[in-house]
């Protein structure tokens, strides 16, 4: 899944929960798995890339993905998923 779509889904999920929608554990677990895969992929690309501009972009995306992963794990812990 592309970065922007994945982050959008994560934001929708968290925002929905904040607005009172129930948490569906299977969807949350799938989202966490996709975020974990994205983290692994970005870390691998960071190791391969020496271009400073690409590294900056990857590091920024990695921060965003890690933040979303942290939010989803917190939500998962709150809802015993």
What does this structure look like?
It is a single chain. This protein is an all-alpha fold and about 80 residues long. The protein has one domain (about 15-75). Helix content is about 85%, strand content about 0%. It has three helices and no strands.
Blueprint (SSEs and pairs):
Elements: H1 3-18, H2 25-48, H3 52-78
Helix pairs in contact: 1-2, 1-3, 2-3
Strand content: under 5%
Number of strands: 0
Largest sheet: none
What percentage of residues falls in helices of 4 or more residues? Answer: over 70%
- The succession of helices and strands, N to C, reads HHH
Q: Distance N terminus to C terminus?
A: 23 Å
In DSSP terms (H or I, runs of 4 or more residues), the helix count works out at: 3
Protein structure class: mainly alpha
Mean pLDDT: 90
Number of domains: 1
Spans of 5+ residues with little confidence (pLDDT < 50)?
none
Instruction: Indicate the radius of gyration in whole angstroms.
Output: 14 Å
Short description:
This protein is mainly alpha-helical.
Features:
81 residues; 0% strand; 83% helix; mainly alpha
